[in-house]
Amino acid sequence: MHDLNALPTNPKKVMKFLRDRSLLLPLHTPCPRAPVDDVHHASIVKRGDVSDGFSYFCQTCKTYVSMRHRSIFYHSTQDLLTCCRMLVCFDLQLTVTQTSALLGLTRRVVSEFYYHVREYLFNWTHIHFKKFASNEIIEHDELFMKHLIAIGPDQEDIPAHWVFGILSRTTGRVYLQIIPDRTSASFENIYDQCVEPGACVLTDGWAYGGWLTRNYRHYVCKKVPVQGHTIEEPYDVVDRKFGRISVHTNSIEGFWSEFRAKLHWSRGWPATYMPYILAEFMYRKERMSLLVALQIE
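The chain above was modelled as a monomer; its predicted structure follows.
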């Protein structure tokens, strides 16, 4: 779905295009209003009083159900072709302003659609998250976000946050989570949930606690003073499990640069929206098609 010109324009072909990719329910689907102990089905029928021209109709319940039921398009009032075009723009990482100008839509319409896409990504990443394996080399760092968040009138009392980040050198995957502080207990709890014991962990020297060295192959970056501040100086070690390792956190530092740039392109987001933005970054680093997370399961 990377090309706007490749999308079909005929409404029926658009529906088939989406149905073939599991973004719409099939022509015959279980009726959502049926009792749990009495399953019956609804089928697609023409309907002139709705924008899509079709709805599901259940002969047993004698009720209509939106053709967009359970789909990413359910909350949008735009036609399906326009929704597909917004989806392409999202996949290409265009901002709300760029997409609204390109498609001739209001920023509010695009913003609401983007919100629901990110909501899907948030749910998918948390349901399907897999721990970093014990044979992976990972880098760990935190980013302070106070100066990156757009604070609105209704969010003046929201405190600043740290973003905890793990990046795998082995797979390129990332894990991101907002944390209230940088205490050892907070980090240990996250590692228990996200990283298998025995993985190789590279950090910048923060006092994470003895548990990190006991449970993981832990190496600390070397800090070198340069003109009043410190920089990382990579060095090599030979680990009996992982072999030769270059100890530094340049990979995740580079990711933070990418993350900051995205925030600045969009002029920041409200703090309450940040979990959805983090989920989007996590999903994109999985290197999977956007359609996987948006499919109806």
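The chain has nine helices and 13 strands.
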